[in-house]
Amino acid sequence: MKSLSLLVLIALVLSPVPLTAQVVARQGSAADSPLEEFKSPMVLDLPLKNFREMPVGTGKDFKEVRKYYCEDLVLSQLLVDKREDSHRGKPSGLRLDLHGAVWVRPSYDRLATLRFDVVKGEKRFATNQIFNINAEEGQTHSFSTSLKIAAEDLDRLFAEGEAPLLRVTVTVQDNK
């Protein structure tokens, strides 16, 4: 009996007909993406709460904007620097210098408009826009602008209550 089992085992191993198991594949859990996708226009509200206490000449790198895509375009960089906006004989206001870049995914060309507003509640204290940024596929395009806040508005902007915000509105069009 042992020799018969051994003979069958040898025959199976040396057999030209392969014995295969069926492969089974299953769907794993969907990975959570850290990126968020939006249709145009996309609005980002960035807190400026601590900007009053920050020394002049310093700023903030809003790295968190990199995870928000609008029609395949992303703000890949946004730096906001605090500057004094002085005029002879008048109290100094505040100037926010904005430097950044947009990036578009490969296989897409986009035309972007960026609007920057300093707001508190429903009140707008400063605004500026950059029109028609020609963002070509896979490329980074830099931009810079500034926002000026008058000296007489600073106390209201940084008063108790709601925190002031830098509101960034990103409007994107296909650029074929």
Report on the structure:
The protein has 176 residues and is mainly beta. The chain has a single domain, classed as Immunoglobulin-like (Sandwich). Helices cover 11% and strands 51% of the residues. It has helices spanning 2-14, 151-157, and strands at residues 36-38, 42-47, 59-61, 68-70, 73-87, 90-104, 110-120, 123-135, 140-149, 165-174. Strands 1, 3, 4, 5, 6 and 9 form a 6-stranded mixed sheet that branches. A 4-stranded antiparallel sheet has the order 2-10-7-8, with no helix packed on it. Strand 7 (110-120) and strand 8 form a beta hairpin. The chain is elongated, with a radius of gyration of 29 Å.
List keywords for this structure.
four-stranded antiparallel beta sheet, single chain, mainly beta, Immunoglobulin-like, 176 residues, 51% strand
Number of domains: 1
CATH class category label: Mainly Beta
Number of helices: 2
Please report which band the strand proportion falls in: under 5%, 5-15%, 15-25%, 25-35%, 35-45% or over 45%: over 45%
Unreliable stretches (pLDDT < 50, length at least 5) are none
**Helical coverage, percent range:** 10-25%
Radius of gyration: 29 Å
Alpha-beta classification: mainly beta
Net shape: elongated
Biggest beta sheet summary: 6 strands, mixed
Under CATH, the topology can be stated as: Immunoglobulin-like
Question: Overall mean pLDDT score?
Answer: 83
Strand runs, count: 10
Tell me briefly what this model is.
The chain is mainly β.
